[in-house]
Amino acid sequence: MNGDLVVQRPEGLYCPPGDFYIDPWRPVARAVITHAHSDHARHGNGHYLAAAPAEGVLRARLGDIALQTLPYGETLQHHGVTVSLHPAGHVLGSAQVRLEHGGQVWVASGDYKVAPDPTCTPFEPVRCDVFITESTFGLPIYRWCPDEEVFGDINAWWARNVDHGRASVLACYSFGKAQRVLAGVDPSIAPIVVHGAVKPLNEAYRAAGVSLPDTTMVTDVKDKADLRRCLVICPPSAAASPWMRRFGAAQTAFASGWMQVRGNRRRGGYDRGFVLSDHADWPGLHEAIAATGAQRVIVTHGSSPAMVRHLRERGLQAQAFETEYGDDVVEADLEAGGEVS
Asked: Coiled-coil intervals in this record (predicted)?
């Protein structure tokens, strides 16, 4: 529509009056970044703007970039557009982008979750006229259990494996999910070993003031008996690599929202699946959308057709943007190449 504050372009989501992009998937001169996952924060942009808490993880993933940071809730003016960043509750430093211009307020959510998480600032609803929402888990089958139940199951699984003298290998994405798992498990059960892809992100979290338990690298384990009782946090690619041999006959599990569908665990060859997501579930998506007060909603990656149809049935103006954002699977695919990012 004419006068829209965000439109689709081949490079990504573009703000015409501000002449900048939000999470572009092609290199551009100016990019506002919602968070540091690889499908939203890419190399090659001339200038990056992100929330202040994201600085460490962005630099860990993208290196020496021209990065400007903005504290949550503070505003800046760019070509007459008022820009502010607000907590998205997805991962450390994740932000929703609020744009105000010409009497309109738009919010681009990036990825978000509404459930509490000790490793990042909680989701903050932002009132707006138009809300651009993700829909990674935008189907009614996706409904998350409370974290305390999930971590109770993970701790019990780990403790049983310790009793049987076998390591517990928990595959999860190196940025965000790994740190959330570390913050939720009981470190008194046995030592915790992390993969090399996880370590620099842990350091960035700790530098940002997030409390995580002590961990070690496998090469630093002094007592080899610990390799038969430890909890191993690694990306999915490592769980299917020769790196695993040093842990012997380990039990394997995968922590992801995709584990809600049992067939995904079987296809991955995991012994267990724990349903733990850094995205909003079906009720959470609708809670977040309603809290904005927006009458127009634009849906991006995920189950866009189902979400658009449901929102229209509720009387909202709804449409979808075609984007190149992925979901948790994108992180797994990128890590399979051996990159931290």
From this structure: none
